[in-house]
Queue: 3 jobs
Job 1
Amino acid sequence: MATRSYSELVKRVEELVSIEHYVSLGVLKGGLLLAAAFREGALNLYALDPSTGSMKRLNRDPVTLTARHEYGSDRVVFARDVARGAEMHALYSVSLDSPGEEERLAPSMKPARVLGIVYSGGEVLFTASTREENGLYAVEGDSARLVARFKGVPLLTSYGRGLAAGVTMKPEWGGRFGLFVADAGSGEVKEHLPEGGSACCPVVAGDGTVIYAFIGPRRAELRRLDPSGMKDEKLRLEGRDLDSFEPTDITFIDVAPDGSIIVIARKAGRSRLFIDGRLVRAPEGSLYYAQLRGGRIYVTHSSLRKPPRILEIGGDGGVRVVAEGRLPGWLGEALREVSFVEVESFDGSRVPTYVLKSGEAGEPGPTVVLVHGGPFAEYGDDWNLLAASLASAGFHVVMPNYRGSVGYGEEWKLKIIGDPCGGELEDIVASARWARSSGLASRVYIAGYSYGGYMTMCALTRKPREFEGGVAGASVVDWVEMYELSDAAFKQFIEFLFGGKRDAELWRERSPISHVDSLEKPLCIVHPQNDSRTPLKPVLRFMEKALERGKAFEAHIAPDMGHVVNTVEDAMKIVVPAVVFLARLEKRVGGSAQSD
Ligand code: 4NP
């Protein structure tokens, strides 16, 4: 394949990052959809009329995080980073009647890391983390009242009948996620760690019970919890399709105003939608959120080949696109083929792995093992900017859901607890070996962001012969120093990941900065300057050590941004250096007309 010029390569990335995304988050007053759209260069909120497609922008300046809204809301509530990416958030609201006129909520409260917001019954509740503590707050007048303090990281998902519900992770829970139900008046908090598994997506139903997903070792199911006695039972639905699907994960639950229970469940990296347990047919890929409105369903869909878009599903099952971005003409061929394989790892485990074949690479061709963050996340059949960018630049992309990933049951997730840069790294190496042995890959590189950046650093320092080079974005290099620099939420998160153990020796051993000597292959570091989750400072020390030892590396500090990529400009700062570095290693970029 011919090399491209730098400007061609960059232009492709720019076209990709500029594709508009649309997500429907709720139904507002008058039946308008609350759409969060990556549009006008950033994340913005719109009132979208699904029958005409007309859209009215609600916020003035770009948004970082949107509240969950009850049906029929006449205001929208959201948070915005006010610290140039360092994730110190302030809260705002806008009335549907006066778009653009933002009102700052609780202005006397200092900005904090907001973890979850709900706007319901005219009240705004949120969970947030400061350096010292994690808490649940209620907006009252000019200030935010601390309802309850939490040990663990509380993610608020629902509020109703005076009860706030969410998911929380405590270091002593051995890697499992529990539920909390808090009385917003008295501040009493009850926690529930379901026997043998984790909890997800709790919603306070109209009768004051909490509907949630139980994520078991290999299966997920719906349960109902009675907050008075904290007893739970399996929730029986009219339709049997959800049970017979045997999901390994449930990612979304809501109760519509008519009492219907809306569920999005997953298996093998793809989603299905159920209303009262009955399957609703939707295109293959991933689904997020879903609303019922006037006998129709609104849901967001994406896949590895399609960016997020809003679909309407009619009573007759017909699917209509309500809002979607325009795709560059070359995209379909660049993202030629998606497949799912199970790669055998060192201990016989099978690693669920997505593969995106580039139409611009031969077979075998240059391949990137792209590692997701989290680690409690997954790369399924969802839109993924990095995967699309790499495939567009002529790389096949292999995305292993290493142990620790979610989506495949608790048994697989829990295998990472206490063992970062251990078994999961072996799974990633197994996927690289598979890429070569299956005939897909000529040379194999590694890339990832956040926990994926950590895995890249681990791979290049602990397994230096398995990859030809790598890109570590927003990576973790030193658990000890990072812990000291973290706020309450991320301190708890690190302890959670290590299974509650604060073992400085283990933390040092699992830190790439302890193994700089072993680096052999070219490394590209990309790091946001104001990142408060994976701070830059330890990475600067890593670079100093690499420099002293004469290692081949390059570094791109992305100015004026933090961990979260929320604008076209920020996406360019991260993706362009990554793609150019890899293309250069493959001699796929440059001024001369080389070919391979
Ligand atoms: P993520 O970022 O991969 O984007 O979720 C992370 C941030 C912090 C930690 C891990 C991942 N940590 O362990 O502190």
Job 2
Amino acid sequence: MNEYDSNRISDIASTIGFKKTNVSKDADCFVLNTCHIRQKATEKVYDEIGRVKKNFRNLKKPLVIVAGCVAQAESDEMIKREPYIDMVIGPQSYHKIADLILDYKRNNKKIDATEFDVVKKFDELNKIPNTQNKISSYITIQEGCDKFCHFCVVPYTRGPEYSRSFTQIIEEANTLVNNGAKEIILLGQNVNAYNYKKYRLSSLIKELDSIKNLKRIRFTTSHPKDMTKDLIESYRNCKKLMPLLHLPIQSGSNSILKSMNRKHDREYYLSVIKKLKNINKNIKISSDFIVGYPNETKKDFADTIDIIKKIGFINSYSFIFSPRPGTPAYDLTNQSEINTFSENKKKLKKLQNILDNFQLEYNKSFLNKYTEVLIENKLKKQEKYFGRTENMIPVIFDSNNCQSGELVSVKITSFNQRNLFGFHIDNKVKAA
Ligand code: SAM
Ligand code: SF4
């Protein structure tokens, strides 16, 4: 979502003459779009500002703006801690960035813009064309969260659940397809909680499925509780919907899930997967895991390993629990003596080894077979192409004749942990 937001920030700043640069020293304004999900992310922001400060020691000070969820959570405290920062802008206020920059230039006064103004944000954004021109493009359809998992800051930083207008989303999708997009990834903190008047996520998928030049549809991130019947049926009815679902489970232990306030248990999660597999046995699942949640016992951890083995996730994200101030789990942290940091690191390594093995085995299953790849780009400095399989595995391959945006059949000749490698022969060229 931050990638989507950063592109939109750039679209808005361009209305007052700003252009992107790849040369850091040429910049007269830095916008750091930040994430607050784990503590590490916050510290990275200050490190990055330290680097800018050092590089500009003998140059004119650039305008420094912190945007995103760290700005939302810490607001003017950030300016007090690091006076090099000129402005903080929360994720629901960034549509105002052009006016705020002009205000700053006029008054030379530090700015804290961290109010929640999500309806206005999307109305304003809708007036500025989305200039993203990637083969695989993002659209935010939903923001915020009402679920309040006990470990998570999102409900506090992004605010309550909000769904964008159906028409606005479809218009944006058509703009992106006209810009060259062949794949659209619908985004939301709880993307499958999308709920606008009579429209649900399944309605959006159905509408996108009918856009002629669009080839693939994906959505992320989903909450297990919102895997409704109509959404599951989309996997049967919409041919362009790709057979990979990212469905975070966090833990395989019912008592930890309860303590996390996840609102689902392992049996329910397994039943969702079963329904999906009944529609298409080739649907694959990826997930998110948290290890070392307060009071997680050996048995709880073993339950997580057990569910990983049962489902065989093909690609997942896993993290050591990071206590976030203001969340209910933060208060549990001191009460938990079972999980020391080094214990948690060992657990994470064990869990990641198992996940990696599933991923490697899955990649191996492509060997000497043909697979359909959507070409995203030609690799710089190499006569090779980059694309992804239906299940998002990156593929690097040789070809005698192909172009970005095409769907081609690639023969896989080798693989590693993350990638597949192979070649594509254009039959038309061969015949000629
Ligand atoms: N809404 C999605 C869901 O509930 O399934 C997840 C979105 S959350 C922004 C992304 C991931 O960050 C979560 O699935 C979780 O694994 C991880 N995460 C969130 N808070 C965390 C914390 N305090 N410590 C460690 N990981 C965390
Ligand atoms: Fe965070 Fe997802 Fe839980 Fe919402 S549902 S609180 S975004 S982990």
Job 3
Amino acid sequence: MVSKIERDLIAAFRQSFERAPRLFRAPGRINLIGEHVDYNDGFVMPAALDLSIWAAIAPRQDRRLRIRSLAMDEVVAFDLDDADPQPRGDWSDYVRGVAIFLQRAGYELSGADLVLDGNLPIGAGLSASAAFEVSAGFALLTISGAEVDRVELAKICQRAENQFVGMRCGVMDQYISCCAVAGSALLLDCRSLTSRKIAIDPDARLVLCDTMARHQLTNDAYNARREDCERAVAALSTRIAGVSALRDVTYAQLMRYADSMPERVFRRARHVVGEIDRTLRAAAALDAGDLEECGGLMNLSHDSLRDDYQVSCAELDLMVEFARGVPGLYGARMMGGGFGGCTINLVEATRAEAFAQSMAERYRAATGVTPAILTCVPGPGVGPADR
Ligand code: GLA
């Protein structure tokens, strides 16, 4: 069945470009645990949301790429053969960057008209930007007759965001948008880029609570955290053999060489080393059906992100604090890059509805803001919209 979003997108495409498009769809994501560890070669546990970005596309005979975003109400046009492409500093960089890096990776892209829209809130920490990149990348490859290797596409989208947009993100968001499996989370090894399915216990629900806070300067703060991690690796790699990322460092080793780095850098590293361990333990707990244990690890993850990594904010802390007082909660933590957006909550299935209601009431009473609360049903990765 064609959804309203898809109908509107087709109508907008016809209006802008006067022909019929093909439709593709890439999901946003949640992450159960494993935050700010993907760019340290660690382990993460994301799943795809059933909220997505859709790309409507049709090929052109020339080398132009014309992109329209319904949310931004703007059409931007580029030449695919531009020898020195420069970012514009807006939403179109995500799409153009992917086209540029697909071509640099050797794909021969056809010119195209492209319209993008979705039901993923922007800035809520649900990875709308990765879904933008992946839907556009998949659509461009498909109409150009190229074979899509999903892991390869994820890597190219990450490269585009790192090098064209200037956000030094890890690969988690793009990977899950490309490779998600409906009904499961994935335990992803960000070094080998291999993953295995983690079943979500039917007795539990994953509930997202959106603080509605959208703080600025996240890219700078994010890149600064990443630099701190690199400083920690530089200090440790001269003392311990075989360290190329924080993934290679044990907690005992970090403690032993704590004095080799500034206090702030040490605390960033302590979060990462601890979080990688927590993620592996959470996977084992879910395998064993131990929801209490998994929830406890999620709680520890939040505290570490708040205190050591310092990427939380007052609204996220409040949301987590409220959740921990509501019956049926196993664990609650901030999710994604931080500084606003959503918390993720592992909740007893039978109490999930009451939990959602109680959270909305408490947060509204305390802040005057009505939060969006939604239960996540893990969906599939990118593909044609008519699957
Ligand atoms: C953002 C980035 C990801 C990841 C998370 C934090 O979503 O895009 O690569 O680093 O933050 O876990």
